[in-house]
Design brief:
By secondary structure, the chain is α+β, with helices and mostly antiparallel strands. The chain contains 5 helices and 4 strands. Helix 4 crosses helix 5.
């Protein structure tokens, strides 16, 4: 190992270069220049490769950021809608669902077609209460049933029909006795 460091010393290299013929010095200079050019090419290539890799990663991260921003915006919108739906409205009475369902049924049917309307409520988890009204209608047509269901769907307050049961009347096959449960969710308390 000692002979290797001794041979690679700067003075030894200068002495060896000085002993070369002019033609050999030209070949050594061309070889040295080729080696330096190769090192520069390799360095530039690696830098370009790293730059391209970073651009790809930046593009991927931008796409990911756009998706996260879109999800955040949709979350904020859904949260706003949920808060608006579950907000306590001081003008809303405790029996507002019953009153609303009664009004919507009265738009399409006469009072004699309503057999009964029974309100009830039950807790759903710790934060919500499900208010429901069981509606029994007698002697109504299919078109009237669809009209009542359409009114429930188009109401300003979100309602859902959790159950519909229709029985054909024996005396008139175009009339039905209909039992349905209409419900709404509100915050507890």
């Amino acid at each position: 190992m000692k002979w290797f460091t001794k041979w690679l010393s700067l003075a030894n290299l200068q002495h060896a270069y000085a002993r070369l013929a002019p033609r050999e010095r030209l070949f050594v200079a061309i070889g040295g220049a080729t080696f330096v050019a190769f090192l520069l090419f390799f360095l530039v290539y690696e830098c370009q490769s790293a730059k391209a890799g970073l651009r790809t990663r930046i593009t991927a991260k931008r796409r990911q950021l756009e998706k996260v921003e879109a999800l955040a915006a949709s979350y904020v919108e859904l949260k706003r809608q949920t808060d608006a739906l579950t907000a306590k409205d001081p003008t809303r009475s405790p029996n507002s669902l019953y009153t609303m369902v009664d009004g919507l049924v009265a738009k399409n049917l006469s009072r004699d077609k309503v057999s009964s309307m029974t309100p009830s409520s039950k807790p759903v988890g710790d934060q919500y209460v499900e208010e429901s009204v069981a509606v029994q209608l007698v002697g109504i047509t299919l078109q009237q049933t669809v009209g009542v269901l359409y009114e429930f769907e188009q109401s300003a307050t979100p309602l859902y029909v959790s159950r519909v049961q229709m029985k054909k009347r024996a005396a008139d096959p175009y009339q039905f006795d209909v039992n349905m449960a209409v419900a709404s969710i509100k915050t507890a308390g």
